[in-house]
Amino acid sequence: MPSWYQAAWTVVLSLYSDSDSVTFGTILSGRDLPIDGATDTIGPLINILPFNVTLNGSSNVADYLRSIFRHSVELSDVQCSIPEDGFTRQFMTALAMEFEMVPANNQAIQPIGSSWSKILPDISLFICTTYNGEIRLCFQEKRYVRADIEGLAKHFHAAIMHLGSWTCTVGDIMDAVMKDGSADTLMTFGNCYSDTTSPASIKEDLVTLFEKATRENPRAVAVWKTPFIRRVRSSCKSYGD
């Protein structure tokens, strides 16, 4: 189930960032570390590692989900790593999966009450998925607007549902998620439809810029030649030359 959510979130991030390569944080519990007593230790053992995925729109959904699962397994082998090991935490979102831990009757230590949690992340956008299918998006209000987060949640839900179409390609899923016209909205927010961000807005190149500098500053130095041999004098050429 975590891989399903990770695959869906990858699709959404790819659509929102207009990039085939995305990275987000994934939360690892640390309870399966090769350390004696890790499962019974009181206190957090969690670690956040970067989850990087490169999407291939022509891949079918089944292969895509398998690749996400394999990547999750690979990360679990290094979940005790620290940033100095090369895993930088340069991501804006993180995804966590909660599980209901039901203690066995023969365990020596029993919980004194039902479990609960309160999330105060320092990450701009934190997605928490629970064992019963509930999804919570925790975000920093100084960075995001609630209406935009609600739209993001809608697309996340759509990606989760569409990933059940095993015969489709990843590209089909991405097209289905953005059928509500949100793609145009994102392009507008990204200033992609503006004339100033299109190739047609480029009116000058190196040649025209050089000619302009020649007209405006004919005596300014355009090229300065410094010889390797010290006793040979250096020389320069102005734009007028």
Briefly characterize the structure.
With 241 residues, this protein is α/β, with parallel strands linked by helices.
Describe this structure in words.
Residues 6-74 form the Condensation domain. GO terms for molecular function: ligase activity; phosphopantetheine binding. This is Condensation domain-containing protein. The chain is α/β, with parallel strands linked by helices. The chain folds into 2 domains: 2-100 and 117-195, Chloramphenicol Acetyltransferase (2-Layer Sandwich), CATH 3.30.559.30; 203-238, no CATH class. Helix content is 32%, strand content 17%. It is built from 6 helices and 7 strands; from the N terminus they run H-E-E-H-E-E-E-H-H-H-H-E-E. The protein has helices spanning 2-17, 61-76, 146-162, 170-177, 182-189, 206-216, and strands at 21-28, 47-54, 93-97, 125-129, 135-139, 221-225, 235-238. The chain has a 5-stranded mixed sheet with strand order 2-1-3-4-5, covered by helices on one side. The protein has a two-stranded antiparallel sheet with strand order 6-7. Strand 4 (125-129) and strand 5 form a beta hairpin. Helix 1 crosses helix 3 (146-162). The model has no long low-confidence stretch (mean pLDDT 78).
Secondary structure elements and pairings:
Elements: H1 2-17, E1 21-28, E2 47-54, H2 61-76, E3 93-97, E4 125-129, E5 135-139, H3 146-162, H4 170-177, H5 182-189, H6 206-216, E6 221-225, E7 235-238
Parallel strand pairs: 1-3, 3-4
Antiparallel strand pairs: 1-2, 4-5, 6-7
Helix pairs in contact: 1-2, 1-3, 3-4
